[in-house]
Amino acid sequence: MGERRGAPPGGLLGGPAVSEALSKARRFVGPAVILLVAVFLVRALVGGWSEAREYEWRFDLRYLGLSVVLIFLYYAQQWGGWRLILRSFGDPLGRLESAAIWFASILGRYVPGNVVMVAGRVAMCRRRGIPAATTFTSLVYENALILISALIVAAASVPFWPAFPYRGYALLLAALAPIGLLCLHPAVFGRLANAILRRFKQETLATTLPFGRVLLLLLYYAGGWVLLGLAFTSLAAAVAPVSAGNLALLVGGYAFAWEVGFLAFVTPSGLGVKEGVLLLILSLIFPAPVAAALVVLSRLWQTLAELAAAGVIWMLARGRGFLEAHG
What pLDDT digit, counting tens, does each position of 205-255 carry? Predict the structure, then answer.
């Protein structure tokens, strides 16, 4: 099971011309979006420099340390989610093996479309005897659960936000959650996944996740968004005053910004799109230049955390001879 044989050149989109057009669009639109958001961020910082200098900045090591602990717990929790999904299909991987694969593959999110992340994880799992169809299915479940749980957490927090001109869009996105859940029902998911796998000349799935387990995993991933939101709140509190009344906005707003970036597809890891939305949300409680500074800081903070976590796992795997044995 698992070798792709003679897949049609146009993929699921119908032909090479369509695929090439989409590839070109991403190539130009993605950088344009990133540049546009960068211009707005710089403009907000420079234009409000005097206001930013007079702002009540602070540097609280306790909150900074808490944000670091929470974000590493978040990444451990996310890896644990994929491991739970894969174990439902008879995961033969050891704990260090699955951690090395997951943390290495998430760095592929910085390439537009998440293709590198998917292809990398499928290839690494296949070398360890896991069929490509099984890994691909686990990835579909993982990303769907992350997205749906983000929609739910964001929607639950919106009523507690200050007046937000795009509140309707946040609630409209939340309406996608029940549609996504319906697609994860075994009766629906099995047919959709097998249709895709047959299209790519892959062996079809022998089983899908029971819907009760899907709902439990959804709660698990919703907890992950709360964890990440608290990590971001701690980061903000480390440099600027944050009141308890702003907790719902910071936790739910971060999930909302991420989901918009995820659905954009045109930039790597939502870069630019996520920052633009987060800037709008943070501007509800912070002056524009302060919000812009927090947006830049949050991207740097999360990128460094991902690189550090992947680096630590890589060193552990190498130290135990895992990379040499399976590389």
Answer: 767 899 999 999 999 999 999 999 999 999 999 988 898 889 999 999 999
Query: Rounded distance, CA 148 to CA 151, Å?
Result: 5
Q: What is the C-alpha separation between 248 and 252, in angstroms, rounded?
A: 6
For residue 134 the two structure tokens come to 């099984």
Range(s) of the domain holding residue 93: 15-41+61-326
In a domain, 52, yes or no: no
**Measuring CA to CA, how many Å separate 85 from each of 33, 80, 212, 308?**
34, 9, 13, 25
Written as one string, the DSSP assignment of 5-67 is: -S--TTGGGTSHHHHHHHHHHHHHHHHHHHHHHHHHHHHHHHHTHHHHHHS-----HHHHHHH
Q: Which residues contact 201 (CB under 8 A, 6 or more apart)?
A: 4, 5, 6, 7
> Is there a contact between 64 and 235 (Cβ–Cβ < 8 Å)?
yes
DSSP for 226-271 reads HHHHHHHHHHHHHHS---GGGHHHHHHHHHHHHHHHHHH-SSGGGT
**Is residue 6 included in any domain, yes or no?**
no
pTM: 0.79
Average pLDDT, the chain: 78
Identify whether 262 is part of a domain: yes
In a domain, 4, yes or no: no
CB contact at 8 A, 85 and 244: no
Residue carrying structure tokens 């899907």: 214
pLDDT of amino acid 52: 55
Q: What is the pLDDT of residue 142?
A: 93
Q: What is the pLDDT of residues 298-319, one digit of tens each?
A: 888 988 898 899 888 888 877 6
Please give the single-letter amino acid code of residue 16: P
Helix (H, G, I), strand (E, B) or coil at 106: helix
Of 256, 284, 279, 283, which Cα lies nearest the Cα of 162? 284
Angle between helices 132-157 and 115-126 (to 10 degrees): 140
Question: Domain total for the chain?
Answer: 1
